Every structure is written in structure tokens, then in C-alpha cells.
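Subject: mismatched residue count in predicted assembly?

I count 702 residues in my input, but I want to confirm that the predicted structure covers every chain. Input:
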Amino acid sequence: MDLDLFSDVGELTARLVDAESVSGNEGPLTDAIEAALGQLPHLKLHRDGNAIVARTELGRSQRVVLAGHVDTVPTAGNVPSSVRDGLLYGCGSTDMKSGVAVQLKLAALVTEPVVDISYVFYDCEEVESHRNGLLRLSRNSPDQLTGDFAILLEPTGGVVEGGCQGTLRAEISTKGERAHSARAWMGHNAIHDAGAVLDVLRGYEPRQPEVDGLVFHEGLNAVGISGGVAANVIPDRCVITVNYRFAPDRSADEASEYILDLFREWEVEVTDVAGGARPGLRHPAAQSFVAAVGGTPRAKLGWTDVARFDSLGIPAVNFGPGDPLLAHTKDEHASLSLIAECESKMLAWLR
Amino acid sequence: MDLDLFSDVGELTARLVDAESVSGNEGPLTDAIEAALGQLPHLKLHRDGNAIVARTELGRSQRVVLAGHVDTVPTAGNVPSSVRDGLLYGCGSTDMKSGVAVQLKLAALVTEPVVDISYVFYDCEEVESHRNGLLRLSRNSPDQLTGDFAILLEPTGGVVEGGCQGTLRAEISTKGERAHSARAWMGHNAIHDAGAVLDVLRGYEPRQPEVDGLVFHEGLNAVGISGGVAANVIPDRCVITVNYRFAPDRSADEASEYILDLFREWEVEVTDVAGGARPGLRHPAAQSFVAAVGGTPRAKLGWTDVARFDSLGIPAVNFGPGDPLLAHTKDEHASLSLIAECESKMLAWLR
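Triage response: the counts match. Full output below for your records.
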């Protein structure tokens, strides 16, 4: 597979889509990216498994990280790509091979950027977080990820989305006492008690704090419930799984404390928590970026890898040409004009 | 296997327990019962699979049915039987081989009863109702089950328990709309909506109607709940399974209507309903029985096969020497003195 980094960015996106790279199978595409970047004398390459970092080393006063994952969710009969009415269809077209194509174009065209740039291409973003290539890079070679500001080219529809919210999962259990359902008063119904847990959820008022100038929107929801022993038995246990999405002015620990306190009447186990990321839009590099690409930045509500940059102390935003609502759909597609616009705005900023 | 119907009733119960007869495997025990009853010239036998009816035909003005199932739940290392401190231990000792032993003793000893008697021994009571031997008999040979009054020798601790409550199961579904849990307000949480269903259950006040002189006690409980799509998805469906135990002054249809109306805001499917049975204690044969065995009759709350007699138009009560709270336990046991007392009271009534 040969990638021509000097072809049109839409054409390059199509070639990337055609190179199927479902999580775990990024090898051939990564090899092709490495080979193409290896032709560019202004970049220094580092490879770690199926992740690549390509850096300029011009001694600029600031360094920007441009990152994107090369893997996709499983295909759904939507490879190879096709073009209709100015839209490029295919698995990964929006999430996020159009963003990766923009990264590759910038890497090829901007030989003398105003800031130093680290281009990061990584694997396994669409699967369990312990397999994430950016996490692996941050552990194996943290020096490859240093920078003053990071842009993740995840789909945002060409709007700057700052930071991201954290996410926490907890299991809340009610306890009862079994009895035959013909003599229910001999026991205690744990499913009925779950009603009081649902009362807390129904009465929840989401915080919508402003963080670094962007308004976030929290959420607290039951995403699962289960209880019951047998059709004639008063149940002695009911478990409600809740998902708390919290704004980045609250740490993972603070989010856990909040949930433990909110459900203090019951047994609560926090099973999973990942902190969010502050928008970082007050950083000079971020401000010049926002001024260059235009539009009004908004808060990113879903959790993304910007949180990993945040945990490395690097402010980060999401900005990419894909449409986030089309990610992971069979009908996934991206606007060729938006991809080109994204490329030209970033070119103008970096040159 | 030989059964000596002239041995002591406790001894006979022990032999019945030793003859393992888990539902579906009642053949050898039924053969032994048939052989033993076949020795009694005052009885006329009818066999249907592993069910036997043995009738006196003395032209009495009234006929009483004495019924019991010969099967047990699966054994739990509690066969053969053993005796300690006046208690007979073993699978089926309480539910209900002690009752069957009393039936067999009466069959052998009461050659000239004051009423005609139909002794019914049947299979598969402890499993799905469509396999029930009494149901099969009622369809194949309804003439074998005619009578003015029926006694089911199920465990009641030697107290007359009249009638039984009906039981209904229904699934109540709430509907929502899926969305990513990071943007919960784009969807609608069906699990949160289940809170209102649980509110109805938490606010439910059980009826305790008096029926034919006995006080029943209804119950309405969630026995199961399930909902949830994935840990990051707002769920679009939650299903609550409820079990309604209703007094016998309400028919199965009335019970269904009550539930459909109570949960009219939601989708409700009645998945299973079995009507109860009125106590029938106003019948002369029932009154003479109660006078003979003494004690204060109480309402039977769990569903039993008395409901099948009720549907055949025969008033029926439960009365047996076993302890209902020990039924289906590994530690199942029955009091030898209570078994003997039950036998002697019924002998006194029938002679």
C-alpha cells in the first residue's frame, strides 16, 4: 500500500478508508504511514507497536501535538469508500480517517511551521482503554508526547470542542430479605427499595458549570438495573448501575465522593472512573489556534483521549472534519469540502 | 418394594420417603401403592399413568375426596429417611409423604366409612402445571374425581387451611429513547420511568378480605426487574415482573382487570394467571370434618391443587401433618406424633 501525501486531502482520506484497519489490525496501514512519513526529511520518526510519532525539531519556543487514531470500529459492509454528492462514505470516514488525512497533509506540506509539531498516529482507541496506543506511548515514551498544547482530530464537525467530561460508573445495591411471594410480609422487597434510588435519579438536577469559558452539562443516569430470584420469591437484592458524566472542574476523586454521598443510604461500589479534561483555551497556543480556525468553541461532553493529554499536563482540544453524530454508523460519511476547509485553516495557522 | 399398610403410620411414612420419587420418577412407588391397595377388597382401583384413584362404592349420600401427590422435589442427600427425637427426616417427609401415609392407612383401616371416599394419589405436582397428574386425571377421567368435598393432605401442621389464593404474573414495560449517556437529554431514560411503577408497588395496600369466614391476605410484589442496553447508553426499555396473589373472592379475570387498570399508564402483559379457591367451609361435610379434627381453620395463602377441585365445583381444604415451612428444605422433617394424631383424628371422623 502506497500513500501519496501530496494528493488531494479527500483522495487521501479515501485511500485511508480503503485500508481497513479495525482495532488490532492497524499493522499494514501503520506501515504505509511510516513509509510515507519516512520520505519527509524534516520529520524525526519514532514507532511503538502500531503507533507512530513524527516530530519537527526546529527549536521553536512552543510545541503543538496533533493526534489521531488510525483504527476503526468493525466494518459494516462500508469498505471500500465511495463518493456521492460531495460526501465520502465508508468505515472511518468521519471517525477519524478524515482527521488522520489532515494530519498527514500537514506533515507533508508544512516543512517550516511556526511552532514545533509532533504528529501522533495511534492504535486501539475504539476498544478497551488498557489497549489504547496513546496510553501505551505515554507509558513507554512520555518524552515523545511533550508539548504546550494538543489537538485531537476527532470528529467535531469543524468546531473547536474544548476539554471533555469525566465518566464514572457505580453499582448501587439495595438489600432485602427473601420470602415466598404468597407471604410477602415475611420478607422485604429489595426491588421496591430500588424505587428510592430511582427517586434520587429522577430528582437529580444536572450541574452546567462554566469551565475556562465553556459551559459543560453533567448527567447522572441509570444505565442498568437487575433484580429477582424466582417468579415466586420476594427478591433480596437489586442492583442499579449508574453512569455519572461530570464536568472537568471536578476531579475523578471528587466525582466518586459526590456519588458515594448522594447514595449514602445504600451499598455503593464505584466500578470505573476516568477524569475529564479542562478546555485549556486560555493557553496562548490555543488562543491563536481558535483565532485561526474561527467559530465559537464549545464544550466536549463525551470522554475522549484529550483527557490523557490533560493527565500529562498538556491542555488539549478536539477539532476535526468528521461529523460526530455519524461515528460508528453503517452510513458513516464525511463532507469533502469540510475536510478541505479543515486542512486549509490548519495550514494557515501553522505556516 | 412392598408397602405394609397395616404397619405404624410413622413406619409407613419412612418407607415412602425411602422410595425416592422425584417428579417424573414416580413409577416404582406408584406400582407399590397400586399393589398394596389391590389387596383391599372394599376399594375399586383406577390407574392413569402414575396416578391412582381408589374408591369405596357403598352408596353413601356423600362422597369425600382425599388427595395427595406422591412426587417430591429433587433429593438433597436426605434419602433414605432417619429418625431423631421423634422427628422423621428425609425428602418428602413433610411434603407430603406423611400425608400420603395417612391416606394409605385410612384406605386400609376404614372399610365401612360414614361417607364414600375416593383416595387420589397423583404425580408431578412439584413441576410445571401442565404435567400435573391431578390435572391429567381431571381431563381424562373427570368421573373419578367427583365428590361433595375434598381434602388435600398437603402440609399444614395439622390445621385446616381453607381455600387458596390465586396467583398472577404480569410484565410491566416502560419505554424510553436511546441516546449516548454523555448527552442524556437527547434521549429518555426508561429505567428512571420504572420509578413510577415502583411507586405504585410501594404505595399498594393489600386487601385482607374475609371469604367464607376466613381472612385472606393479598400481596403485590415485583419479583424481577431488568433494563439496560450498554454502560454508555440511555436505556429505552425496562421490564418489571410483578406477582399478584389474590384472595378467592376475586376471579382470575377480575385479578387481570385489576392489574391492567392499576398499571394502565404502561404496557402490561399478563403472562400467567391461576385462580384461587374459596374455602368451602360452609359445606356440611366440611363442617363435620372441622368439628372432628378441631382447631381454628385459617386461610391458605399459597396456591395449591385445591384450586383444581374448586374449578371442578368441589369445595376443598388443605389438612396434613407436615410442616409447610420445612417443605423443599434439605432439613425437611415431620413430627411422628403429629402424623399419628392426624391419622387418628381422620379415622375418628370417617368411622
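The longest strand of chain A covers residues 166-175. Marking this ticket as 'not a bug'.
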